[in-house]
């Protein structure tokens, strides 16, 4: 199973998606403007990569703009769709539940923003 840059398993079988995900994450950590482009490449390489959809939702919420809330909630909804790959969800072996926890966190984190706006 592919691993991210920290050595943790990720729920994609695409080496291209895994590499683009690592680049998106590193770009974000280094305050680079190309993080969204790397995330776009990640989802193009594997549109069912659940953790990448979560990251898209988190990126959308970084702006603290009401206009981006639909993007964030759609990203979390995409991660929860049947067929989307998340670790700990069948048919992926339950190596860890990081992906699932990110989906739960996204749902819980974005609801208060929706109520506030």
Provide an overview of this structure.
This protein has one domain (15-116): Serine Threonine Protein Phosphatase 5, Tetratricopeptide repeat (Alpha Horseshoe). 59% of the residues lie in helices and 0% in strands. It has helices at residues 15-29, 35-45, 50-61, 69-80, 98-116. α3 runs antiparallel to α4, α3 packs parallel to α5 and α4 packs antiparallel against α5 (98-116).
What is the topological layout?
Layout: H1 15-29, H2 35-45, H3 50-61, H4 69-80, H5 98-116
Number of strands: 0
**Distance, first to last CA:** 41 Å
Tell me roughly what share of residues is in helical segments: 55-70%
What spatial form do the alpha-carbon principal axes imply?
globular
Order of helices and strands: HHHHH
Biggest β-sheet strands, sense, barrel: none
User: How many individual helices?
Assistant: 5
Instruction: Give the structural class.
Output: mainly alpha
Extract low-pLDDT stretches.
Answer: 91-96
CATH fold-level topology: Serine Threonine Protein Phosphatase 5, Tetratricopeptide repeat
CATH class membership:
Mainly Alpha
What is the number of independent domains?
1
Strand content: under 5%
Radius of gyration: 14 Å
Q: Could you report the average pLDDT, rounded to the nearest whole number?
A: 79
CATH architecture: Alpha Horseshoe
């Amino acid at each position: 199973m592919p691993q991210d840059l920290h050595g943790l398993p990720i729920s994609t079988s695409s080496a291209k998606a895994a590499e683009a995900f690592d680049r998106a994450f590193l770009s974000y950590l280094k305050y680079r403007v190309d993080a969204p482009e790397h995330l776009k490449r990640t989802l193009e390489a594997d549109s069912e990569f659940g953790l990448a959809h979560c990251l898209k939702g988190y990126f959308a919420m970084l702006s603290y703009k009401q206009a981006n809330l639909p993007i964030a909630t759609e990203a979390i909804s995409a991660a929860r769709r049947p067929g989307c790959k998340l670790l700990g969800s069948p048919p992926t072996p339950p190596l860890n539940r990081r992906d699932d926890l990110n989906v739960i966190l996204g749902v819980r984190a974005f609801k208060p923003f929706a109520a506030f706006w």
